Amino acid sequence: MKLPSDALKASIFVGQSDVQLILAPRAQVDIVPKPDRWLVYMPPGVRGESKPSSTLAHGEAALRVHRPFGSWDLNLYAARTHWHQPDKGLDPQTGNIVYPRLNMYGATVQGGLMGGVLSLEGGYYHSVEDKNGTNPYVANSQWRWLVGYEHELVSDVSLGLQLYGEYMRQYDGYLPAAQAAFQLGRGPKPLPRHRVMATANLRALMLNQTLSFTCFAMAVQHGGRMVNPELSYAVNDALSVTAGGHVFFSGPDSWMLGMMKHDDNAYLWARFSF
Predict the structure, then answer these.
(1) Angle CA(251)–CA(253)–CA(255) in degrees, nearest 5?
(2) Are residues 99 and 124 in the same domain?
(3) Which of 10, 50, 141, 159 is most deeply buried (CB count within 10 A of its CB)?
């Protein structure tokens, strides 16, 4: 789970361009659920957690440059940060989860195409503490990309599609080291070089837009599939009722959606706003 963080934000506008700089004096990593309250799966060798130091030397910074080009928007990003997820670093001596240094660089382009909206994103995650990829306890550097397209099929019915991928660098150095750590019971199962995830989201509005139906589907390479249909009705301006469910399909137990393949569920809730 993510937490908010204390940060300073500055914006500069130059012509059609704008530049944003964010400085955070300390890293705010994701919350790791505690096993005394939650049933939490811990990989082999994990005993505790060691968060980044709160000194300024371990602070974080991010920069964004934005400029429109006609009906298209271009964004360039750079950040000096940490891996915030608890599965990206492990100290084999203490068994503690750690959060290694990370530099990020990326770009996004978004604009209209054939009556819809096309989004293109690409980024490079430079793992500072594992430049050669031979440390199985620190996440390797990665290329990540995303292609998205949303289009209104007919009035009040829209479909959004996304394709997301990851490519691990220095895989030839990572794989033998990760296999050795796994066989010794000191690390998780080795990851594949590539991972691709596809999603689709269908949304329809009916009855003067008081009734909405959505169906979200996700398929993860090596990791199973999931479908989430949902129906929501606005009784009036203050009260709405929603019903839906999650259906999971087969996948390896140690991977993303595969571990939830026996956790199909249905839900019903009401929201009152005032």
Answers:
(1) 75
(2) yes
(3) 141
Secondary structure element (H or E) that encloses residue 120, with its range: strand 116-127
Q: How far apart are CA 151 and CA 162, in angstroms?
A: 12
73/27 same-domain check: yes
pLDDT at 39: 53
Q: 28 and 89, same structural domain?
A: yes
pLDDT in tens, 67-86: 999 889 999 999 999 888 87
Question: Could you give the residue ranges of the DSSP H alpha helices within 91-185?
Answer: 171-183
| Residue 215 falls inside a structural domain | yes
Cβ atoms 272, 242 nearer than 8 A:
no
Q: What is the pLDDT of residue 255?
A: 61
Cβ neighbours for 213, distance < 8 A, ≥ 6 positions apart: 202, 203, 204, 206, 229, 230, 231, 232
Q: What's the domain range around 220?
A: 207-274
Ranges under pLDDT 70 in the chain: 1-3, 32-47, 251-259
Is residue 142 classed as helix, strand or coil in its secondary structure?
Answer: strand
Amino acid 87: pLDDT? 74
CB 72 within 8 A of CB 53: no
- Tell me if 1 is assigned to some domain: no
84/29 Cα distance (integer angstroms): 5
Structure token pair of residue 61: 């910074």
Whether 233 and 130 map to the same domain: the answer is no
- Percentages of the chain per state (helix, strand, coil), in multiples of 5: 10, 55, 40
Same domain, 121 and 218: no
Instruction: Name the residue with tokens 């100290």.
Output: 91
156 domain-assigned: no
